Amino acid sequence: MRFGLVVNPVAGIGGRAGLKGSDGADVQARARALGAVPRAGERAALALAELRSRLGTAAEVLTAAGPMGADAVRAAGLAPAVVYEPGDPTTAADTRAAAAALAPRVDLLLFAGGDGTARDVLDAIGDGSGGGGGAVPVLGVPTGVKMHSAVFAVHPRAAGEVAALFAAGAAGTRPAEVMDLDEDAVRDGRVSARLYGHLMVPDVPVRVQQRKMGSSVTSPSSVAGIAAELADRAGPSGLLVLGPGGTMRAVAAALGADVPVMGVNVLRDRRPVALDVASGPLEKLAGSAPAWLAVTPIGGQGFLLGRGNQQISPAVVRAVGRGRLAVVATEAKLAGLGGRPLLVDTGDEDLDDELRGHVPVLTGRGRVAMYPVH
User: The pTM is what?
Assistant: First the structure.
């Protein structure tokens, strides 16, 4: 079996900087100015290292030159077969051209990026919902900021695991949705997502993520109860760090604070002290005073950390401490997961291991549900 690999070298660079995405040269330059470091190649190499551990060095990987793939293949201890030479700097056009060059030659096309990269792959190989164009199976190695699409593995290592299962004939395929948010709209406080099409992916439940689902109607009494519990825990002098999302914005409103829906926000005594904070300032705040960190799972996917809230870096989580990490969800939101576990993908494997297990999920005033985290 031949594998293809396309890496978007700048995917995810805007995450730690709180820029809601990485699309566009201006956003990427701003992220670098804020100290952001691209990690797409590193995460692609992690996926290939897992694949190599299962299939050995005989795994054949066709790819693009340099940071668009060959560097990651070599970092994983494999020998790349380069079939495309990108420009410098690389662009979305290079992603599309590389995917188009690889698709006819491989059995499974891996790509490292986010929803924008998935759209570029879709444009290059066609929609796979009808089993015609786009019939070459693909699998996303999650490296972006926005990963609402159902074409990504839940973790880079899971991508290698799924690829190996597919190579062994232990996984069929299914069409999966490619979604994307309008980044400019998100920066203006408007969440606007749409379906762009479908790509075929290996059908490995739990190891390949679901698409993000819209939040169900939240019960005002549940939100008010959650808000009261968090306020009690933080106390009048402690910090309360609220992750992004509609549930957390509703919690903030119940406390009397108006906060951006897609930002990470910090309250003290129910009042905002920092809005839409990037990882650097957030790390300093979390280390300056006792703090509670409240996050809610992404609807339908179950991700607590590592999807859309990369501002909450491993350093932030460690500064707060696991004992002060509050997982928040209404009972309806938990039911929407259909029994699937909550997920973490912080980029720090040791921290991910520490966070796995069963955690108490705050669902209302004095109400807690124990739920597994994988």
Answer: 0.88
